[in-house]
Amino acid sequence: MKTRRGGGRDDRYEGAYPTRERAEEAVRLVLSGLGRQLTGDERVDLARCLPREAARVLTAQIPDPQPLTGWAFVKDLAARSGASLATTRWDTGSVFAAVTAHTGPDLITRILHQLPTGYALLFGRAELTPAA
To answer: What pTM does this model have?
Structure first.
């Protein structure tokens, strides 16, 4: 996740934040929330892929017995942080993009199979539903 502008591009569309502190705040918020959603091997494997501090944030959370849908996840994070839903959705997508860069597509697919609906879009993937 980028924390500053550079290279002549408009980094706002790549998850850039105005300060390192703001980026770290977003990472902590989203990884804490994800840590409340994941269990089992996916949680352990994800923690192994992340930088040490990020893994600590993820694993310090006790998983909720009833995981939230993707939209409920964003609403929960917004309520916890006091930020708008739009800002929280942006933060979630930015952090999940960085998570994907650290883990690769196979682990993300496993994580998405564990979570309720709505997370695929947050990870920048199409939400696929089984045919009726």
So the answer is: 0.84
